[in-house]
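#struct-pred

JT: dropping the chains for the assembly here, can someone run the whole complex?
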Amino acid sequence: NRDIPLAALRGASKRYGALTALAGVDLEVRAGEVVAVLGANGAGKTTALGLLTGRIGPDAGQASLFGADPRDPAVRRGIGVMLQSAGLHDTVRVAEHVRLFSSYYPAPRPLDETLALAGLSELARRPYGALSGGQQRRVQFALAICGRPPLLFVDEPTVGLDVEARRAFWQVLRQLRDEGTAIVLTTHYLEEADALADRVVLMASGRVLAEDTPAGLKARAAGRRVLARTG
Ligand code: ATP
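RK: done, full complex below.
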């Protein structure tokens, strides 16, 4: 059904003690689109992702996935999530991690294809613990995409990567988009949102300040002032 968004927040709020991490956020993701959630540290991006992916529940308002409750594990199985960190076993080889995760899905991507997309073909036999931080992030990415999810969430995937690695990763996300995958990514970088997104949701202090195409957002004077601070 094209009228139901793949994922949505409606007036969603989340507090941690006295701190309001998210204050009445509306957000929608539709089939096949790439949405960038752009903002500085503490803007609420990871919290918004946490609600959409069912890792946490809202204090007020609603989160939905495929029109259902993201906190339901059966609903969550339909998405891919690349977190900023994931607890994997140091002694288990890269290919074994990917093979195990792939086995949970009804129509997984062939192992070699997943490894190639994630840039892990040469590292397949290495134990996870022997990889660099950047390489471990590739494994987390591989686990997020191995099930061919129609909707993929990636949380600040290119932080700390050099320009070349960042560009290479963008190319992979474009390939997934071209396959029809809807993607939600959080980022600090306007350049990244511009390179990938159909729509940008600009956040600050737990609120949505603006929502527009990358070009539209750049054209807004007010947006520009805020963007200057998101670096
Ligand atoms: P970053 O770019 O640093 O990941 P962000 O935009 O993703 O920032 P969030 O991680 O969503 O922001 O955090 C929003 C606010 O909520 C921040 O002030 C953060 O310190 C606070 N916060 C997030 N998670 C928790 C938690 N589990 N307990 C307490 N405070 C939290």
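JT: nice. The chain is about 35% helix and 25% strand. Residues 62 and 199 are 21 Å apart (CA to CA).
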